[in-house]
UniProtKB/TrEMBL annotation:
Limits of the Glycosyltransferase family 18 catalytic domain: 356-497
Name listed for the protein in its UniProt record: Alpha-1,6-mannosylglycoprotein 6-beta-N-acetylglucosaminyltransferase A
Family annotation (InterPro entries): GT18_cat
Gene Ontology molecular function: alpha-1,6-mannosylglycoprotein 6-beta-N-acetylglucosaminyltransferase activity
Superkingdom, taxonomy of origin: Eukaryota
Length: 543
């Protein structure tokens, strides 16, 4: 019997290709969550595809199936794009943001598999400076959220996946308006059906949770003091907040610290009215809703990791390095941070030079504070140049500031040991390793030799001896296990998969059925300290 005409026309080779294509689909479906590939849409696992049966994104919105979440998300995204320049505007990350919007569109059209709510919206200033800044915030958030940002040796628009995207979500970064905070919340309303979480600076999260233009009505509690209360009558319905408080995430490099363990720019007593030893949080639901770079007590720990950029260049062999120590100091006043060192620098430099060790600095000269004589001044370096310099010397020396900089981890990853000072015996508190009242970078010091050497900052003889020990010791590249890229991705995955709504429900139930609110003292101190500003209250006509 001869083959049917269609089969004869296709030929054996074509039939084989068709078979491979169909068989491939059978294999890919369970792997990627595509439940109906032939129908034209890739429906992510967990979505109720029947609610969107027959939906046509090209048809008029009034024809959308009422229960189809994807349709509502798509219409919101269309409206959001149309509102650019009025309700919101892009910052200096235009290409990144536009790429994120395009990916969101592919998510809601079902062309790629995404979570039901695929968007993590962020507006922290430091996500825009990766590759250009050595600030701890920029280094930390780089691997967590900065998709499409520039890495050393890549173009600015080269796509780079971050830990958020690797877990299936889209991170959309918008530059915040620091003068008019409420302007930042228009995107949270316009994209309310898409938002899984809203990541914002911790101070900003305090304002969001206290403002009816950001948080939804059931989570908004008016301030007791009328002077700090929003006029709800002045807020048009279109500007009322849509976010549940459990979707708001505060981002802080320093965390909500008890008064005894304040970090840079913090004073829990003055700014928030908190007594000695009292726990507190910017977030009404607690510190667990705050992400931080180190394992601060009670917070959500998404690790700082320098491993990715460290691995972009080979480690310089010990025998090819300079007999030099690099001072860990961003600015020249750091050399005078502790009185014990102010007058001791000439002797320290001379003793190290006598031992054959040069002393280098990349500090910026400010406030007419000179860099001590005898120290080789390299000037300010780019992030890539700084990393290369760290890897070209035989030791790094801390002199008291900065408190918990990422730079010592860069050094150890580049096989450069660090020498860190202490000046007091730490308490038993879990906060002690992160507190500048005891030492510089206590968590680095705790790693011990040969990676981290310690010296009493009042004992300059010990300082010189520890530097000489470090310079004379060859070490292997070292990254703490919980600060690897794998750890960042695993912790980010666990964070994103947490049942935040369930935790919220438990908190509300334990609070008499009422969502928690900021207490009167915190509100009053926020305005008195200037962190909250009366001109940002909803009063009369809103712009």
């Amino acid at each position: 019997m001869s083959a049917p005409p269609l089969f004869r026309a296709l030929g054996r080779r074509t039939l084989a290709l068709v078979f491979v294509w169909v068989f491939g689909l059978v294999l890919l479906v369970p792997l990627f969550g595509v439940t109906n590939p032939v129908a034209g849409w890739a429906v992510p696992t967990g979505w109720a595809s029947d609610a969107c049966a027959g939906w046509d994104p090209h048809a008029a919105p009034e024809l959308d199936p009422p229960q189809c979440l994807r349709a509502r998300q798509f219409r919101q995204l269309q409206a959001f794009r149309a509102a650019e320049g009025t309700e919101w505007q892009l910052g200096n990350g235009d290409m990144r943001a536009r790429s994120a919007l395009d990916r969101l569109e592919r998510c809601v059209l079902g062309l790629i598999a995404c979570p039901e709510r695929p968007l993590v919206l962020g507006d922290m200033w430091y996500i825009f400076v990766k590759g250009h800044s050595e600030s701890g915030e920029a280094v930390w958030l780089g691997d967590v959220v900065c998709a499409g940002s520039r890495l050393a040796g890549t173009r600015a628009d080269t796509p780079q996946q971050d830990a958020v995207e690797e877990n299936g979500y889209v991170f959309l970064a918008l530059m915040p308006d620091l003068r008019r905070a409420y302007k930042n919340w228009a995107p949270t309303r316009l994209l309310s059906e898409l938002i899984y979480q809203y990541w914002t600076d911790a101070d900003q999260s305090f304002n969001c949770l206290s403002d009816p233009r950001c948080v939804r009505a059931e989570d908004y509690t008016p301030a007791t003091n009328a002077s700090y209360r929003h006029d709800l009558g002045a807020v048009p319905p279109s500007q009322l907040g849509q976010l549940p408080s459990w979707r708001v995430i505060g981002v802080s490099f320093w965390g909500s610290r008890p008064f005894s363990f304040d970090g840079a720019g913090q004073n829990a007593q003055y700014l928030w009215g908190k007594a000695e030893g009292e726990e507190w949080a910017w977030h009404t639901l607690g510190a667990k809703w705050q992400i931080v770079p180190y394992d601060y007590p009670g917070h959500s720990y998404l690790p700082l990791s320098i491993e990715q950029r460290c691995l972009q260049a080979p480690v310089v062999p010990y025998t090819e390095r300079k007999d030099a120590v690099l001072i860990l100091a961003k600015e020249s006043p750091y050399f005078y941070h502790k009185d014990y060192l102010t007058s001791a620098w000439p002797r320290i430099v001379a003793d190290l030079n006598d031992a054959g060790v040069e002393v280098w600095s990349t500090a910026k000269i400010v406030n007419d504070k000179p860099i001590p004589a005898g120290i080789k001044q390299l000037g300010q370096l780019s992030a890539a140049e700084y990393a290369r310099t760290v890897g070209s010397v035989k030791a790094m020396l801390g002199v008291g500031l900065p408190e918990i900089s990422p730079s010592p981890f860069v050094a150890m990853c580049k096989a450069t040991p660090v020498v860190m000072p202490y000046w007091d015996t730490p308490s038993e508190s879990a906060w002690a390793p992160f507190a500048s009242r005891y030492a510089q970078h206590g968590i680095v010091r705790a790693l011990g030799e040969p990676y981290a050497y310690s010296y009493d900052i009042r004992n300059t003889t010990e300082l010189v001896a520890r530097v000489i020990d470090a310079v004379g010791t060859e070490i292997q590249p070292f990254v703490p296990q919980d600060m690897t890229m794998a750890a960042v991705r695993e912790r980010t995955r666990a964070f994103l998969r947490t049942d935040w709504e369930g935790l919220y429900d438990d908190i509300v139930a334990n609070n008499g059925g009422r969502p928690p609110a900021h207490d009167d003292t915190m509100m009053e101190r926020c305005f008195a300290s200037g962190k909250c500003r009366p001109e940002l209250l909803a009063q009369g006509a809103v712009e």
